[in-house]
Amino acid sequence: MTAGTVSPLSADPGNEPVQDQLQQVQSLYPSRVVLTTYPSQHGINPIPLKWGAKDPAERGPVVVSRNQETLGKRNAMGAGGGSYCIYRALAVAIGALTPNHRPDFRLTEPTNKFGPFDAWCDPEKIVSMDPWGHAVVEHFDKYVEEGTDVRPTIAITKAHIKLAEIDDAISKGILSCDGDIITKNGELKVVKVAAEPVWYLPGVAKRFGISEAVLRRALFEDTGGMYPELITRPDLQVFLPPIGGLTVYIFGDPAFIPDPTKRLTMRVHDECNGSDVFGSDICTCKPYLIYSIEECAREAQNGGVGVVVYFRKEGRALGEVTKYLVYNARKRQEGGDTAANYFKRTEFVAGVKDMRFQALMPDILHWLGVKRIDRFISMSNMKYEAIVGSGIEIVERVSIPEERMPADSKVEIEAKIADGYFTTGEVPTAETLQSVKGRNWDEIAH
Ligand SMILES: [Zn+2]
């Protein structure tokens, strides 16, 4: 090894000989590791990418792959696939996938047509997803043909969903099977859109009112220096972050979403796995989600359309580990689990009470062509303000009905209402917040 070069190989005597390890790496990748690139470097010639251009041909494809043929043509930093890029790396490392695998996108095209809408060519309206991310086959096929690794970041399909809670609502007469929106077997027909994050950094920085330089540096530092091009490639403006994306569930005809003569019911839901999937009763997430699905289905049955957007922002984007640490501290604190201390305990552990930062959230609504939401099934003031602030009208805000709240979730909901959540009822005082108490450990038998 010469001075200035680095080797990722371990010289641990218990490990395979260094020479063998080197050969394994060289069978997958070129021998020279490209740690970063520079705009003026030989062989660096990015495919033009003009964010917000009206014509997709002028806008250009988002190209982020580092495979040999594409490295020099890349016009985006980061990695494709959101957080799943790490599993891809593992698949390559164990030999299950060749690093030069070329996907075959034939027959993968969207089942339903969306847009294009004006927002797709407004460089400030959509900054956290690629508005043409579903249209690789349609618009960017020539690049794929030429051997460039261009991948979709949005996929659109359709499905039936069946939920025990919806069966229950049907048996209670809350919903009826019309044979169209809800089949005779109680299945809900949906169109689904999955989107991975694609950030146009100048637009993201502007949305948060910060400089692009600060944003780039923070992303570089807090990903363990994972993407040096954030620093060395100011000419590249698009970054694919290694985070979760979102899913849209549409009840009724998606073409009704931008139609001002049709009513739209919508919920924007942030993932809460403990409640959504496993039924934890400490919060209102699942009951609220189910209620919104019912309301969306009803709107569609009445001739409108319903939309649920599901963001992978677990535990207010703090993650489940932080969430459980907070649960423990809430239950153990002196005086018990009170609404008065609900946010304080999160702040003690995480330093902030919420990291969802809803500023980027309305992008998907603009992508869908939403102009007006007739019924917004959410009490969140942050979501409401972000949506209205982005130019979408919200006609009615709908709280979760009292009878659907689990008893132990009172702590959360009262604390949120006192903090600004929408309610048609009373806003609790500091005194009431002290008296709203959740179960303590002794009452949770394990
Ligand atoms: Zn929850």
UniProtKB/TrEMBL annotation:
Q: Indicate the segments annotated as coiled coil, or none if absent.
A: none
Q: Where is the GTP cyclohydrolase N-terminal domain?
A: 32-222
Question: The organism sits in which domain of life?
Answer: Eukaryota
Give all residue intervals belonging to the GTP cyclohydrolase II domain: 255-398
Record bears the keyword GTP-binding: yes
Tell me which Gene3D superfamilies the record gives.
GTP cyclohydrolase II
Q: Which GO terms describe its molecular function?
A: GTP binding; GTP cyclohydrolase II activity
**What GO biological process terms are annotated to this protein in UniProt?**
riboflavin biosynthetic process
Question: What keywords does the record list, in alphabetical order?
Answer: GTP-binding, Hydrolase, Nucleotide-binding
Q: Which PANTHER family does the UniProt record give?
A: PTHR47259, URACIL-REGULATED PROTEIN 1 (PTHR47259:SF2)
Q: Which NCBIfam families match?
A: PRK07198.1 (NF005536)
- Family classification: Belongs to the GTP cyclohydrolase II family.
This protein is called Uracil-regulated protein 1
Organism annotation: Coemansia spiralis
**Gene designation per UniProt:** URG1
